[in-house]
Specification:
The structure holds two protein chains of two kinds. Chain A is of the alpha+beta class. Chain A contains five helices and three strands. The N terminus of chain A is likely disordered. Chain B is 56% helix and 9% strand. Chain B is built from five helices and three strands, in the order ββαααβαα. The longest helix of chain B is centred in the middle third of the chain and has 30 residues. The two termini of chain B are 21 Å apart. The C terminus of chain B is likely disordered. The chains are: A alpha+beta, B mainly alpha. The interface between A and B is large, with 34 and 47 residues.
Chain lengths: 105, 176
């Protein structure tokens, strides 16, 4: 995705500068994976996905699932943007409602 | 009602009369939902990763949607092929699944339930499941998925998730 942002439209120097900016944005700014409550998914299923996909211990998987259930959402991961996008894609494959967000808390 | 038990390293599902056929038929129909880009159920199965950023959303979809649809369709096909019938009068039957197969089933069952929820107008936790045939199928799929996940968790040596403090999977008012 870095390459898709400006490749072919700028000079080498400009590209270097852009890449620097993008690198900072993509790797220094923490991004979040947020899972949202929805009316369909079963508690046990969400808990299993958290445990099996993210590798959370059962207690932590349960705590995060309950956060989703009671607060409407939970942050389940943070880190580089592309990693969060992989997580969100996986959550969508599991049928969970998930989004990527910049961590500006 | 469908029963599921541990069997060797995997699990065994016992379908009552008609159940295998209904499941097979629904799993087969899910392929058509993925093919119809105007279907609201399809949109619900492919939610936005960036609801507040149209550009990032489009970019994310460009990179992920096709593969995601392919994998979801394959999971649904996995159920249809394993069940091998779409006859609503199918005979009672039993089926053995590996853990990996069963996890694939759990994913596809979510997509089936999301699709039925879309048809039933279930948009929030406050929406009741209508007392209709489709509503009954939706509840049955929930029961099937719940039992499947519970059995998978047992195979992992994990206590049945959430069952102590939440709920009855058949209670429509507390679906999660």
């Amino acid at each position: 995705m870095l390459l898709a942002a400006g490749a072919g439209t700028v000079t080498g120097t400009e590209l270097d500068e852009q890449l620097d900016v993008l690198t900072v944005a993509d790797f220094s700014t923490p991004w979040l994976t947020i899972v949202w409550n929805d009316p369909v998914n079963l508690m046990a299923y969400v808990e299993r996905v958290f445990r099996r996909y993210f590798g959370f211990p059962p207690d932590e998987a349960h705590r995060l699932m309950m956060l989703v259930h009671t607060e409407g959402r939970a942050v389940v991961a943070s880190g580089p943007r592309e990693e969060m996008e992989r997580h969100v894609e996986a959550m969508h494959e599991f049928g969970l409602q998930a989004t990527v967000a910049r961590d500006d808390a | 009602m469908t029963r599921i038990e541990r069997h060797d390293t995997g699990l065994r599902i016992h379908f009552a009369e008609g159940e295998a056929g209904i499941l097979g038929s629904l799993a087969r129909q899910l392929g058509a939902v993925f093919d119809d880009e105007a279907d609201p159920a399809r949109a619900r199965m492919l939610p936005s990763a960036y609801p507040d950023d149209a550009e990032a959303d489009a970019e994310f979809r460009r990179w992920t949607s096709d593969d995601l649809v392919d994998r979801k369709a394959a999971a649904a096909r996995g159920i249809a092929d394993a069940v091998g019938t779409d006859d609503p009068a199918s005979a009672p039957t039993s089926l053995d699944l590996s853990v990996a197969d069963a996890d694939g089933w759990a994913r596809a069952l979510t997509d089936l339930r999301v699709t039925l929820a879309s048809r039933l107008g279930i948009e929030s936790d406050d929406d009741r499941v209508p007392n209709t045939m489709t509503g009954a199928v939706y509840e049955w799929l929930g029961h099937l998925q719940w039992t499947l996940v519970e059995t998978l968790d047992e195979l992992d040596g994990v206590e049945p998730a959430a069952s102590s403090d939440s709920a009855d999977p058949e209670a429509p008012e507390d679906p999660r």
